[in-house]
Amino acid sequence: MQIKYNPEEVEKFRQKNFGRISHFKDLIDRYVEFAPTIQDRRIKFGFPSIDNYLRITPTDNIMIVSKTSGKKTQIARNIVLNNEELLKKQLIIVFSLELLEEDEIERYLSPIMNVSSQEIEKRFAERDKEFIKKAYEMSGKYDNVVTVTDTVDIADIIPFVMYIEHLTEKRAGLIVVDYMQLIEDVEHKDEFRIISSVAKKFKKINLALKRNIIQISQVGRESAKNKDGLDVFSAKGSGNLENSAQIVLSLEMPDPLEIRKDKNTGRDIYPFGDLQTEIVEAINSNEFLEFHTLTIRKKKKYFLGVPKPTCIIQYDARNLRMTEYTSRRNLHPLITNNNEPF
Known about the structure:
This protein is α/β, with parallel strands linked by helices. It has 13 helices and eleven strands. It has helices spanning about 5-10, 25-35, 40, 50-55, 70-85, 100-115, 115-125, 130-140, 155-170, 190-210, 220-225, 240-245, 275-285; strands at about 60-65, 90-95, 145-150, 170-180, 210-220, 245-250, 260, 270, 290-300, 310-315, 320-325. α5 (about 70-85) crosses α6 (about 100-115). The radius of gyration is 21 Å and the shape is globular.
């Protein structure tokens, strides 16, 4: 079913919430109702060291920052697929502001069916009945994933979510915005003011909807040139962005041959830490593999006693899958001697 809408229908879902004025006892009453629901609504990234560290709750606003062509869109789609089973009774709504529907389906079918996007195009172009039938059969498993491929104003986010929930009679468990610098705001025309306003309003959206929101963010030019890597202030138009999210992560693809010097000690810093040699060997032996780092730059809650992780993500260009890299030497997969991410 294709979800169709018109502005009049969406407009009726715009509403104000005046129920957020509470006495202390009211706060306890809310938490009594909230706490038992957390486990059924807790999302994951699909990368064990990150998931084991973060305490993601159903109201967290999460931001992933990455450079142009940094695979930020694909990590978002991998996260969607990693949560499909977890949120089976709920919706995953993706606001895809950069891709067309045809691009979207390739990004999903490739990892699901374990074939390249070129092969998908070829099979569909040749009207391969068995392959197309299998694709339709697989779609039934992911019927809780809804994609909006349209220009969206920040004021439309809540109406869209409520409208889709109304049509499907399901509650959204995860909202993904790819990417946030493409969200419009009719109240402003200057790019910096738009981004700052959107960041502030996402905070309000998060409080109003009480849904997990993952925002994919482009980085600014100066941050992209920084050889020391990305940080919590790297998002394009940063100023209010880092304050709008409870959790901020950076996705980077380090040059494995670019060795840096620690400014304080003068020691060599290798892009992949203890796994440097092993990963260079993997890259040299398989032209389809890329290795990225996913680093927690800001967090609201975390599990006590768990090491602060920067995990290594293995990306396979043949099927667009992203998985956490596990060392062949049975070493701990986390980087232990890289820059402190906090």
